[in-house]
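Data availability (excerpt). The following record was deposited with the supplementary files.
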Amino acid sequence: MKKILLYTMAGLLGTGAFMACSDEDKGFAPTPIDPTTFTAEARTGGVKLSWKTPEGANYKYVKVTYTLRDTVLHELPPEGKACMRMASVYSDTILIDDLYKRYGVIDFELRPMTAKGYEGESHIVKGQSNPVPPIVKVVGDPIKLALTVGQLKADNPDSSEGSFANLIDGKTDTFWHMDWHSPTPFPHYIVVDLIDETKAAQFSYVCRNHSNKDNPKTINVYGSEAFDGTTFDPQHYNAEKLNTMNNLADGQAAKVDSPALVGTRTFRYLWLEVTASTTGNSYVALAELVVSRIKTATFNPETGETINN
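Predicted structure:
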């Protein structure tokens, strides 16, 4: 009985000694990082944290912990949301994203950590995100505009085949043509007066139903608040670029639909800047053009407010 008891005690002591050794065997303490090198730079929807990696750093990671609190929209738990991010020893920056300015000033706790989990001295860096910009969303169906000839302008319509009436007559066997008698280099423009200002629009067109297709190949789309009817230069009016449509259809009577064209500000004039044709000629021809206004709503993620435009 004594021998069995002695063996049992020895086994327990050995196990305990091994466990204690396992808990403490984390290697050397990680190289400290000079706290004066920590910086926090506000970004849109985030904060960029930076530091100077010490010479001969023996740590594996820089551990970043922080707690997010939302006192505006209360989308986070009342006690806040605890978060953690890790940066490699080979990096001296980390971008903490998915933030909002409404979270306020955040305490980021940074500390070096070895591969075995030995954590070094921690330091607090304060930072706050720049606001996340409002998001414009399309709502409802497009509203087709009843275009008139007076709402359409072009920099080089053909003298005999440049009637805009053919472009809005609802027929695909008639067509409008840019000047092919005395062509000039691209870019060329079709400008549509929407009459009322909007934040979003859409257009579609049908190419000429003829073997001489001369379809647009590339179109830059702009929106501007002003246009004098004669100066065909979107930059002159501080126009906003809404989209670039590349490698457009080259088939006879091909139909092309633009995506929703949403601006960051309102515009009255829609610019179709044609920069290339599918045939390589310096002009294009179209059978039909349809333009629609789109209703939008603007959501502010910092306040939770939605405004219908």
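Summary of structural features: The first strand starts at residue 39 and ends at 43.
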